[in-house]
Task: structure prediction
Amino acid sequence: MWSRDLSDLLPSVKLAAIAHAKLCADAGIAIIETCTYRSLDEQAKLYAIGRTEPGAVKTNALPGKSFHQHRVARDVAPIINGKVAWDDFELWQQIGALGEKVGFEWAGSWKHFKEFPHFQITAGLGTSEFSEIPQDEAEIIVLEWLESSDFMTVIEQLLKEKK
Ligand SMILES: [Zn+2]
Result:
């Protein structure tokens, strides 16, 4: 099973995720993290679903081409009355918009293969570029991107606020 631990994300992406969850909580929306880091093997298994394995297609990202492997993507789900509310379109729109406030790119707004649960911060890098740089370097690039686009100010403000 893949990770649901925010600590398996790059530190700056983890901070953004915490800030996103707080924004959602402030709006009365409870979300859970359903996937953070996914290994190459786990991505290969997921990619097979709907192709060589039974089920509906879950991802268009080939193994090596998922941002989950590079620790900059996470999937979330809203919880209503103790259950995951997969089909509430308006709720997803809200969650997506709140994620974008703290720097996430939301896959629910993509034109092709929308993925409502998926959020990522890539700082303009592609998966092949992430593959070529060490994680600490990726963290610096992502952090600088969040700082230069002022998202870090929003994140830090949110993290400072008490419940
Ligand atoms: Zn995802």
